[in-house]
Amino acid sequence: MTQTQQDRRIAVALFLLGATLSSMGCHAVQLHKPNNDVPAQAIPCDCPRELNKAILPTYMIEPPDILLIDAVRIVPRAPYHVRSPDSIILDVRNTLAEAPIQGVYPIEPGGRVNLGPPYGAVNVEGLTVSEIQVRVMDHLKQFLREPEVSVSLGELASLQQIAGEHLVGPDGRVTLGSYGSVHVVGMTVEQARQAIEIHLTQYLENPEISLNVFAYNSKVYYVITEGAGQGDGVFRFPVTGNETVLDAIAQLQGLGPVSSKKIWVARPKPGGCKDGSCDQILPVDWTRITACGDPATNYQLMPGDRVFVAEDKLIALDSSLAKIIAPFERVAGFSLLGVGVVTRFSGPVLRGGGNPNGTF
Asked: What is the CATH number that goes with domain 34-56+219-314?
């Protein structure tokens, strides 16, 4: 910006400000609403804070949490009919010395078990363990004189549907593949584990699982930063039970250039608004937290908390003035440009016209 443009902006600003004051008389001019002050209902409280934190209530599962399930004991109800990609454990005696049959054998697509050369493959799709034993023995009699076959279940494909990470859906249920879905919303981790085990008893013998919360997605706090007329920022972070106000600001890499040091925590009241006041306001002394190491207002954040960072009033005022002045400044700029162009190209004509060299 050139010096001429700066002078013109200052002049336009002073002119508009003077015109506004003269037209309003003794009334106060409010170019920006006073929402940068801590709300009047702010009251101190003996809330959990740094060095004096509280243990959060027992975690209740809600969408979209992610649960981690591990299968401790998964035994299918008898009789179990194998399928691809299950695996079976074979131990065959009296085999050829150069071609033993022992170990875990996967059931390939199509339901066949490959016993290796020279024995070939056997179709076992949909058979029980005892039926597989008979089928394999009959097949091996083509190559061996007196085979002795032992068969047991190996890894079950259904195990892959139970173990792993499971998202709690919008309907409050977790899906376990072919075993269906289980309602877990509003339950503790222990209650959800029991509910899943009870559901699996329809398909398994005395199932046992371990269950933990892999991602705490349903319990969050928010950080709202005023943008000095350029739009507010809203940031969402999960609550793990240890966050404070200082941790929340650290997630943003510190205060922004348009932020002030006026910060407070708005904590929603349980049960909603009944007396006209919806929030418990906890004022934060940013300077004492950072420069003095005072934990008094470095509150522990709870699910649903809003950490509000107010804008800098001077920067907000500057932004408001810029919005008012900019249209007039553009008009003035175009006007001066037009006058300059006319003066430059019409000068000789105004002095009498004709060729300045006098050749006409």
From this structure: 3.10.560.10
From first to last of its 360 residues, the chain has per-residue pLDDT tens of 455 555 555 555 555 555 554 444 443 333 334 344 666 555 556 789 999 999 888 999 999 999 999 988 888 888 888 888 889 999 999 999 899 999 999 999 889 999 998 999 999 999 999 999 999 999 999 999 889 999 998 887 767 778 899 999 999 999 998 889 999 999 999 999 999 999 999 988 899 999 999 998 999 999 999 988 788 899 999 998 889 999 999 999 999 888 899 999 999 877 666 655 556 899 999 999 999 999 999 999 999 999 999 988 887 777 777 777 777 666 666 555 555 655 665 655 545 555 555 554
Superfamily of domain 66-76+158-215: wza like domain (3.30.1950.10)
Give the whole-angstrom CA distance, residue 21 versus residue 24.
Answer: 5
Give the residue from 187, 184, 180 showing the smallest Cα distance to 161: 180
DSSP single-letter state for residue 303: T
What does DSSP say about strands 87-93 and 148-153: parallel, antiparallel, or unpaired?
Answer: antiparallel
Tokens of 12: 């336009």
Domain ranges across the chain? 34-56+219-314, 66-76+158-215, 87-155
335, burial (CB in 10 Å: exposed 0-12, middle 13-18, buried 19+): exposed
The tokens for 170 are 């919008």
Instruction: State which fold the 87-155 domain adopts.
Output: wza like fold (3.30.1950)
How far is Cα of residue 287 from the mean position of the Cα atoms in its chain?
Answer: 30
Q: Do domains 34-56+219-314 and 66-76+158-215 have the same CATH topology?
A: no
The amino acid at residue 148 is E
CA dist., res. 274 & res. 258, Å (int):
35
Amino acid, res. 258: V
8-state DSSP, 123: E
Is-above-0.85 flag for pTM?
no
Q: What is the strand order of the sheet 233-238 is part of?
A: 233-238, 220-225, 306-311, 259-268, 279-285
In which residue are the tokens 């998202």 written?
167
Looking up tokens 């020279």 gives: 118
Tokens 């908390």 appear where?
Answer: 305
Largest CA distance in the chain: 129
